[in-house]
Amino acid sequence: MDTTTPLDDSRARRNVTVLVAAQAILGAQMPMIFTTAGLAGQALAPNPCWATLPISAAVLGSMLSAAPMSAFMQRRGRRAGFVLGSFAGAVGAAIGALGLLNGSFLLFVIGALFTGIYMSGQGFYRFAATDTASDAYKPKAISYVMAGGLLAAIIGPQLVKVTAESMVVPFLGTYLGVIVVNLVGMWLFAFLDIPKPPAPVKGAQIVGRTRGELLREPMILVAIICATVSYALMNLVMTSTPLAVVGCGFETANAADIVSAHVLAMYAPSFFTGHLIARFGVEKIIAAGLLILVGSGAVALSGVELEHFFIALILLGIGWNFGFIGGTTMLARAQSPAERGRIQGVNDAIVFGGVTVASLGSGQLMNCSGSDVQTGWQLVNLSMIPFLVLAGGALIWLSMRPKEA
Questions:
Q1: Is 32 within 8 Å of 97 (Cβ atoms)?
Q2: Please, what sign has the CA dihedral across residues 287, 289, 291, 293?
Q3: I need a surface site. Which of 124, 213, 297, 320 has the fewest CB within 10 A?
Q4: If we measure between CA atoms, which residue out of 82, 85, 76, 84 comes closest to residue 195?
Q5: What is the pTM of this model?
Q6: Which of 185, 180, 183, 117 shows the shortest CA–CA distance to 151?
Q7: How far apart are CA 166 and CA 33, in angstroms?
Q8: What pLDDT is attached to residue 389?
């Protein structure tokens, strides 16, 4: 049993430090991949409608591996799971590099599936931050770990600028860089101090609620809906952004700068999101995030100059931060330690399932549903509306329910 109290979070703070470093170093591969995968896919794909399929494959890999990764960590511990994820990230980048070398779109997509396993593991950093934390420190721990993405937002796009055209084959240097990031960064987890969950006693009664019971819990249901919508809409727009920027006549370096600003906006608020949740309540912060996502879409629809892309993507990042960290905090508060292995994997499978659909839809809307780049970009942003209505409605429904004693 964890005896951590609000006055003794020293172990939790150490783990948060390790996870922040992992988010910064290992997490740098995600802006690298999201900046280049669509552009490389556009060059390799037999049909431009499938340009974003590599990004969709990465998210699909994350969705498919979320539940097994959660179960693996429940049995083997967080450290083993995170090392496995980093190794898979290196393998995925190596296969992607082979795809680029051979001009094989199929190999490139298969590599992206393995990248999704790393992506799934990274998604559990935020939950690992709460494993040894007191209830009072949990929202702050989640926020601090997410804030580690600030350095990733700087490191990743800068590495793209250095590596994207460093070899005869475009983007090959970027994928080789991702291999190095994974092989070096995985050693951080040697310093993680999270005890393995106790092994289940054979024949013992299951402690806590079943998955079905957990999913019927109103707070958990709304947390999953809001986290899924926030993440899926962020991915929907971000996936198409490099294609829209380059398609509107700007350079790959401009796309990298916009992605960098977006990822900075995703993680910079994390320094105070936990404090805002503690002060104003998680429901209000999620609501603020959804409204900011509305603002992002409005700016994107107002023009296609560089400033429109920058402002829209910055707002997109902030809205994602409030919605996703708020949803994660709500979920963490609604589960017991014995239930986390059951619900966290299901949560991330649902979240990344939504993100997979969004990234697939992004390429179709961007390249195949409009007569030109600008029309495709408008369709991408207009498609946010029904999902924002769904999440907002779910949040209002939860707030109107009688509070349990």
A1: no
A2: negative
A3: 213
A4: 76
A5: 0.74
A6: 185
A7: 16
A8: 96
Other CB atoms within a 10 A radius of the CB of residue 397 amount to 13
Q: What tokens does 183 get?
A: 């092989």
Signed CA dihedral, 241, 242, 244, 250: sign only: positive
The amino acid sitting at 242 is P
Taken as a whole, the chain contains a residue count of 405
Phi then psi for residue 5, to 5 deg, are -120, 165
| 256-272 confidence digits (pLDDT tens) | 889 888 988 988 888 88
User: Could you give the CA distance from residue 405 to residue 392 in angstroms, rounded to a whole number?
Assistant: 25
Whether 239 shows a pLDDT value over 90: the answer reads no
